[in-house]
Request: fold
Amino acid sequence: MVAGLTAVAAWEAFELLGGAGYPSLAWLGIVFAVAIVLEPAIGREVDPTSMILLATGTILAAVGAFTRTDPREGLPTWFATVFGALYTSLLGFIVRLGHEAPPVVPGSLLGGLDDGRGWIVLLVAGVWAYDTGAYLVGRRFGRRRFLTHLSPSKTYAGLIGGIVAATVVVAAALAALGQPPVGAILLGPLLSLAAQAGDLAESMLKRAAGAKDSSRLVPGHGGILDRVDSFLFAAPVVTLYVVATLH
Reply:
């Protein structure tokens, strides 16, 4: 499922890059992104290192860019292909989180889930809580705005409301996983800021392309990239938290 979402998100990202004036080898970039996502699912026995995969994709993108007769077009084609693939492949950290997650404590509320799915529930619930809290508090109390050149609706009140909501939900999720809820004091704000940064990063891409949505694939909601943009940054941050503090 993550690989499928990545493929569609990558296609939308390359469309936006093209709209912003950055040509790319879209199909190569999509394959590159999906390969990065699938890499941790291959298994520990035949686990090619991520660096080899990244090097291979970067080289292939360069070779493909050689076909552009104007080097001033070939160079951004190479850069944009690698960037689009790496950017959207960040969604693959959802899979990596499942691999790196510590065991769910038996008898805990989410003890019926396997280790990976329990932590993915925390990730999804935390991001949704941030979005909901930021929207509700920002709409009610939002006055001062920030980074309006990227997104005119972001307010400091919404940011604080989202962080509080996400921290409460992350604390509940940690407790349900049998982990000390106090970890939410660090993980809640980290997840929130990463989710917000992911949203703003996609907004920058859309602004550069002059687009309101990444596509019209989801009626009334834009495209897949619009739906997963927060997870692109939040998933690596939660994975880093797990690796750094719980291993």
Observations:
- The first helix runs from residue 2 to 19.
- Residues 109 and 176 are 5 Å apart (CA to CA).
